[in-house]
Amino acid sequence: MEIQLTLHGILRDYLPRPAKGKTILTLPEGATIDDVRNQLKIKQTVSAAVGGVQVENSHVLQDGDDLQMFRMIGGG
Fold first, then answer.
1. pLDDT the model gives residue 76
2. pTM
3. Where are the alpha helices (DSSP H) in 7-71?
């Protein structure tokens, strides 16, 4: 299956420079957001949205999904 992936902020560094934070990823059926993180070797904690709706990292992706990932920022 293929998904549209957009990485925001510092996460853009995980894609080649010409990608400008956007790419199409080919993934196996049943892949999750954590699988995307592992494939791209993203170690930071991320927040993710599919189709503009925030989802958990265990969310199972579907063909054609529009996934956006943001670095989680903590504070106190």
1. 59
2. 0.89
3. 33-40
